[in-house]
Amino acid sequence: MRPVLAAALLLSGCGATTVVGPPAADRITAAPDIPTIAETEPVASADDAADDPAIWRNRRSPAKSLIVATDKQAGVHVYDLAGKRLSYTPAQRLNNVDLRESGGRITVVASDRADVAQAHVSLFDLDPAAAKLRPLGRFPVGPGEAYGMCLWSRPRDGALFGFVVLKDGRIDQIAIDRSGAAPQVRTVRSMKLASQSEGCVADDRTGLLYVAEEDVGLWRFAADPAASTTATAVARVDGTTLVADAEGLALAPEGRTGGYLVVSSQGDNAYTLYRLPGVTYAGRFRIGGGAVDATSETDGIDLVPGSFGPAYPRGLMVAQDGDNAPATQNFKYVSWAAVRKALRLR
Fold it and tell me: Of 113, 116, 123, 294, which is most buried with the most CB atoms under 10 A?
């Protein structure tokens, strides 16, 4: 988490970005408060520790869905829908996390920053019955410090890929092969943004990857490893609808190409929505009110549509809370139906 910078940066080869200064309070677009339904037990580590969540929806029994979330100083937690910690797996400096379910197993992948000179990913199997992670190993990606991470499942063959966002803006795409007794991970291509980036999300339907360059805005790449590495600008940090840092990204897919892209507008403790497929501005909101404290300085977010039970009839959103004082950091849960109603989304 960093303060808003006085100027945005230029992405070489992808066009200039308008310079954006620190926002005046009266210029920031209004955002309604969405009440928090639940919160997780705080992480054990102090200071800046909780970072990124990933939601696994139990299709057969939605109330038994699980949230996997990182403590980037100590390991990774598994929580239930009430926010109770069900298990904890020690691991050094895991940052962002994502998961995909395929072939009867749930693969969990986290960016691994234990070696700042050599990026790694750590792989796990999630056992939903025991609500525990089984470590599968650490795998090298490329030089640099691993930061962001997200997964993409290619529709035509189910092949699993990951995108590791390095702290300097490089994005390494990895292929993850689970067909053998042990996972195989190899780097298949690299892309580049000009400055510090972290949040990313890939759309399994459309084969599009979205990445947040923290002080500049959002970019789109084709996710297939055979595609061009050229980035397309889709939204900018403007100090009014999106306030630096642009951090976590999440998708709420609808139909073949529609739905919403959500980004953590960290600089003003809000969340900005863009309507897909065109990435057009659709509104913004904050999380807070009710019996649970509000979120602030959010890093990672995740969002999964579909019923999770009466409290989350149309989907669940989970957001990291950067200031959960007097306790350590944690993660907050909100109803996607409440967001849709507040913003009058069609």
Answer: 123
